[in-house]
Design the sequence.
């Protein structure tokens, strides 16, 4: 069966369950090496130019945001949250563990939509996380806050998401962003509320330690 018909089987076959380096309270199904997994995905789907397997790694911004939430559970406790572009579900899982009432984890990648509930179940929070493939940019609810990590890597996406999140915070919605300073992060509109030295995979981030911050709009 191809991964497109059995993404869960593909994930189980090509990842291992490991603790997140900077948030070891959480375990995720992650890949050993990015390029090999990317190639396997394209080969088995017989398609080139697919997006990177964001769902298969604990990225720097996501680790930072997860750490912040776990260390400051009062930030999310009792809230209904959206984890935008959730990938592996790392940040959603951290929020659920910290006491969020419910987390809607959104992603457009079919593999992520299989990985999120799998990882949530491994961490005992499947009952408080729902995965959706809907495009939620521009939505205003029903949620009390939005969590977003590692999303400012592409110009058009960054512009649309930045304007949306800025507007939500202006209306009183909690907005927290995890980011190591990617190319299109709107630094002039943000302030860092915490910074961490996050261990990462050199093949992904071109470094072994990445300074990563949790941001909110000014």
Sequence:
């Amino acid at each position: 069966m191809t991964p497109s018909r059995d993404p869960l089987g593909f994930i189980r076959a090509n990842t291992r369950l490991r603790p997140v380096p900077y948030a070891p309270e959480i375990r995720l199904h992650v890949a050993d090496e990015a390029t090999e997994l990317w190639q396997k995905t394209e080969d088995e789907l017989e398609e080139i130019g697919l997006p990177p397997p964001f769902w298969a790694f604990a990225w720097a911004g996501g680790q930072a945001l997860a750490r912040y939430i776990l260390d400051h559970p009062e930030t999310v406790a009792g809230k209904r949250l959206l984890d935008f572009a959730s990938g592996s579900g790392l940040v959603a899982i951290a929020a659920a563990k910290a006491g969020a009432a419910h987390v809607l984890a959104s992603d457009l990648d079919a593999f992520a939509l299989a990985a999120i509930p799998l990882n949530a179940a491994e961490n005992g929070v499947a009952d408080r996380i729902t995965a959706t493939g809907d495009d939620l940019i521009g939505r205003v609810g029903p949620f009390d806050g939005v969590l977003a990590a590692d999303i400012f890597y592409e110009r058009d996406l960054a512009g649309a998401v930045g304007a949306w999140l800025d507007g939500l915070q202006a209306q009183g919605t909690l907005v927290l962003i995890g980011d190591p300073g990617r190319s299109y992060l709107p630094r002039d509109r943000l302030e860092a509320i915490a910074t961490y030295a996050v261990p990462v995979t050199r093949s992904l981030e071109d470094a072994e330690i990445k300074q990563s911050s949790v941001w909110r709009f000014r």
About this structure: Helices lie at 7-14, 34-45, 60-71, 90-97, 110-122, 155-170, 202-205.
